[in-house]
Automatic annotation (TrEMBL):
E.C. numbers: 2.4.2.14
Listed Pfam families: GATase_6, Pribosyltran
Protein's name according to its UniProt entry: Amidophosphoribosyltransferase
GO biological process: 'de novo' IMP biosynthetic process; purine nucleobase biosynthetic process
Amino acid sequence: MARGDGLLNHDILPFEKGPQDECGVFGVWAPGEDVAKLAYYGLYALQHRGQESAGIATSDGERINVYKDMGLVSQVFDENTLNAMTGHIAVGHCRYSTTGVNKWANAQPTLGPTTSGTVALAHNGNLTNSKMLARMVTDRHGNFPAGEIAQGNTTDTALVTSLLNDPASTSLEDTALELLPQIRGAFCFVFMNESTLYAARDPQGVRPLVLGRLERGWVVASEQAALATVGASVIREIEPGEFIAIDSHGIRSTRFAEAKPAGCVFEYVYLARPDATINGRSVYESRVEMGRQLARENHADADIVIPVPESGTPAAIGYAEESGIPFTHGFVKNAYVGRTFIQPSETLRNLGIKLKLNALESVIRGKRVVVVDDSIVRGNTQRAVVRMLREAGAAEVHIKISSPPVKWPCFYGIDFATRAELIANGAAVDQIATSIGADSLAYISEDGMIGATQQPRERLCTACFTGVYPIELPDSEDLGKDLLERAPARSGCEPGPDAELGAHLTPADQVPADQVPADHAQASA
């Protein structure tokens, strides 16, 4: 599913799946504040990171309540629901699935028992040793573990939630610090028990996670935009390999692993909001500089430069600045088209891109056009864009891409097409240009892209472009979105007899019916 908020370019073709980040996470510890609404607005700012489901957990010091459902943040929550979720701690999540299918039972935050209470956990990233973690769950809890795994949850997040319940430990914090060094892959965890907010970031820092300060509390979130939205000031990024805890005694930090930075370069190219800052570098400025470098490397004789809305815009601005070719908007986008649940007829499907995007014929006709986009996955979007420009009377169409060819899958939290579907794997650049109908096609160089981020090459993950993975991968049969949904012998974790209980909770498990629609909620005991 493409980005469902309708803001960015890879959703402009119905059913065209672009690169997807797994999730956005948000946590707040703030006595005296309306933490549920803070979490709601924080997730709203992170909606671009996942649109399949959303959830919030709150704690009043004695009880944790979780409310989650399928859909966008604005579709899942309303005023009555948020007013019913009282407390001083909240954890929020918006999901795009990269481990476990898109279903209600896999929505987050996950809820589970611990020896000292309850834990609610939200996760952004993707773990690479899920099979080992599943065996650990079986070793510790047997073939029929409690919690969300027994209710049909098939995510790596549920495995971690289960492993945070250690009968040999009396402290959730001690359990987490023992568990975290054993987890491999990309993870930003934000979780809580009844009294404390926790956050942890993997040793490579693949996904972003930032710490902010409220007048009466603290916030952690995937991106700075969420902090700004709720009025929190940015303190710093959570460091790779760092674990923090926030409670009535303040904030404390523990190093659980040596930092080996390998931040995802695709956050700078496309995933993060333009107003994000990652490792001291503005994402917007990085994208503008990618456009400038693209113009230096790949000049074109043209009359105008236009972006594919919206994520191509900063790079198009940079390309125009460097090349001296005027920047303009060549498309009008329908701001009210989000996810399309109603299946179009064949006739309407053939219209494709025009549902969400239309070319400005008065701007395009007779012009030699440079079109700037952030990436090419299958090529379908660019093919449709070129066709529209031709129909609008463009004399020439030159496609410029502000990232190198995507040739490899991501196992750290981005859901690309399969390697076989990636157009750059099956054709040379001139062949791709012919395939999409463009007069020319050019990509930025790998060095040019990395230089625009102002990050040392050795501190970035470029696996989707280079095939070099900074975190060791297991055998191919132990990877995949459906790993934990295969035969029990493979995952090491067999769902119990109540595998679908999560979608049909009994009244005893629910928040009071006059407060929250019961079939979408969970509560701690």
